[in-house]
Amino acid sequence: MTKKQKPMTRADFISICDCVSKTGNSSNCMRLANRPLSDLYYYLKKNPDERQRLTIARTFFHDEMTAAVHDLAFGGIPQIRRTEKGKIVIDERGKPIIDRIPDTRLITTLLRDHSSRLARAEKADLSNSNQHSTEERNTRLRDEIVSDPPPKESNTKNKDHYED
What are the pLDDT digits (tens) for 137-147? Predict the structure, then answer.
């Protein structure tokens, strides 16, 4: 006999978002909370204003991951120094020497990702600036209409020229 689970509460949702900000995987977080993924979809359907919280959690994870990969790419991935024959090189204390050599393939991948993201951001900025300039034009046109003096009234009442 299966017991029906209670609906997800806001506190449950916040803990799921916290998990997502650390792992980047909402499916895995729902499994860890012993809940089906459909509970998350149902909660977001009933509380659409909370969708932004989940998006922020995913964005936070992505930003942290990108920073870590950036550090590895430019700072180098730690590797144990070896001799030509593959023997580990040790220092005077008997510990292996670790070299950090920047990874050019990772740097290339990062630059490609950042350049496409920058292009998308520039396109969005351009779109927003065009929209803003359209709004400015509409506001300017409205101001011009309001500031124009009203047309002068002429005394052209209906005169019947056939009346005597």
Answer: 677 767 666 66
